[in-house]
Design goal:
Blueprint: H1 2-5, H2 8-50, E1 54-59, H3 61-65, H4 69-79, E2 82-89, H5 93-99, H6 109-116, E3 121-127, H7 131-139, H8 152-156, E4 165-167, H9 171-181, H10 195-198
Antiparallel strand pairs: 1-3, 1-4, 2-3
Keywords: ATP-binding, Kinase, Nucleotide-binding, Transferase
Pfam family, one: NDK
EC number: 2.7.4.6
Length: about 200
């Protein structure tokens, strides 16, 4: 195209100048990209180190049947927490007995296990700063009638036997429950796009 509209000498000179200009821009852009990626990597590492706490949250059969899975996910997402695992499943009895083994001496234990195995459960792992403590606050008191309005149980349920969700009560408990319900390769480690707008 240059040969058609410019003399040979001018076309050659223009092409060389344009090539140098493009190379110069490319090098500058590459350096900027590398610096930006390096800064993002450092930021992401700091975020991961500071906010790597995870919790186990499960929507019980009553919550699934009432179509509340999406609403519960929405609340955790809007809070700023990151979903790293989730699956719908009918939990085997052996899994539930292990999960609730600390309640084995309670009179309601057998009924609880039977109920939890009666239909699909939506199991999740959430990640973020103090997510175990804040997750419990978001769920509300175990007895829904003692839960404040604005909490999940305070807004969506009445009876303790139909309190729609479970949340780990301590970091150590969360680690045990996550290991019970999920394999390592089911947990997704990824960069959360909103992290810069959630954490300082």
């Amino acid at each position: 195209m240059l040969q058609a509209i410019l003399p040979d000498s001018l076309a050659t000179e223009y092409a060389l100048e344009n090539e140098q200009e493009l190379v110069g821009d490319s090098d500058t852009d590459l350096e900027d990209d590398l610096l930006s990626k390096e800064e993002d990597t450092v930021f992401a590492k700091n975020m991961t180190d500071a906010n790597a706490e995870r919790t186990f949250i499960a929507v019980k059969p009553d919550g699934v049947q009432r179509g509340l899975v999406g609403e519960i996910i929405k609340r955790f997402e809007q809070r700023g927490y990151k979903l790293v695992a989730g699956k719908l499943m009918v939990a085997p009895k052996a899994l539930l007995e292990n999960h609730y083994k600390d309640l084995a001496d309670k009179p309601f234990y057998s009924g609880l296990v039977t109920y939890m195995a009666s239909g699909p459960v939506f199991a999740m792992v959430w990640e973020g700063k103090e997510v175990v403590k804040m997750g419990r606050k978001m769920l509300g008191a175990t007895n829904p009638r003692e839960s404040a309005p604005g909490t999940i149980r305070g807004d969506y349920c009445i009876d303790v036997g139909r309190n729609i969700c479970h949340g780990s009560d301590a970091v150590e408990t969360a680690q045990r429950e996550i290991a019970l319900w999920f394999k390592d390769d089911e947990l997704c480690d990824y960069e959360f796009a909103d992290k810069k707008w959630v954490y300082e």
